[in-house]
Amino acid sequence: MHVSHEGKVAFVTGAGSGIGRAIACQLSADGARVAVADINSSAAEETVRLIGQSGGLSFALIGDVRSRTEMEKAVEDTCQYFGALDLLVNNAGVVTMTDLDDLTDEEWDFVVDVNLKGPFLVSQIASRRMPAGSAIVNLATVEAEVVVSSSGHCQVHYNASKGGVKMLTKALAVELAEKGIRVNAIAPGPVNTGFSGGDIETPEALAFLFQRLLVPRVGRPEDMAQAVSFLLSDQASFINGIMLPVDGGWLTR
Ligand SMILES: NC(=O)c1ccc[n+]([C@@H]2O[C@H](COP(=O)([O-])OP(=O)(O)OC[C@H]3O[C@@H](n4cnc5c(N)ncnc54)[C@H](O)[C@@H]3O)[C@@H](O)[C@H]2O)c1
Three-class SS of residue 155? Predict the structure, then answer.
């Protein structure tokens, strides 16, 4: 199966590192022009450099997904620069490892705002500019379904935010169906990006992960990127409102 995004324009949040960077590179390799959005400018510029090195077209946009003003400008700049917006990936996300007892209001708001309000804001703003046939993919996690990951660290704020992303995906799919815009999510299993602040490939961490993983390795950013590219493509035109686990079987047992 050949996925092609030839002639399409993609907007990827958190595209300056990890999974977001892999998604931006994959969509470019599959033919899209890519708006590389991130709060970290040097990280976004590096993704643009990598895409350029492979012959792709992209540009960096600096902004915080929690800011309506900044996201309105970023989407406007994308439409000005590339003349369209067809594919949106709500990838930017954060986590902090804090037990319930120690969790402050500020930490709750930070994680829930980036992970859940961000995808709401960007989807609302971008979908006003997206034509019929467009598609959105949100980054959820296996932790939208179960409270087991991150080597046993508690993270009620993260679980709540990503459970919200699962339902946001369904609600957006229903509401945007009349505009011909599909909305899906992926639920990554463990991917070693430095996201949670620690190395998840230490012997202790791997022993914990291998109790559940059916595929005996952690995920790669490219595993996520290929699934996202497929869900955004016309080959997935009959798939809408789902959360696809890309998790090495983590949710199976
Ligand atoms: N790595 C994993 O194991 C894993 C597992 C499940 C789900 N996920 C999800 O995948 C997504 C990407 O994670 P990752 O592992 O690549 O993390 P990462 O930390 O490597 O990358 C996150 C990117 O988002 C950017 N970002 C953070 N806050 C932002 C904001 N407010 N506005 C704009 N950009 C912002 C960061 O600068 C960074 O470039 C997240 O939504 C995360 O919850 C990751």
Answer: coil
- Delimit the domains of the chain by residue range: 9-252
Kindly name the residue from 11, 82, 158, 230 that is annotated as catalytic.
158
The alpha carbon of 79 and the centre of ligand 1 are apart by a number of angstroms equal to: 24
- pTM here is 0.98
* Distance between Cα 134 and ligand 1 center (Å): 23
Region 167-192: what's the mean pLDDT?
98
Compute the distance between CA of residue 35 and CA of residue 59 in angstroms, rounded to an integer: 5
Q: Which of 238, 118, 243 is nearest to 177 (CA)?
A: 238
- CATH-assigned architecture of domain 9-252: 3-Layer(aba) Sandwich (3.40)
Residue-wise pLDDT for 228-245, tens only, equals: 999 999 999 999 999 999
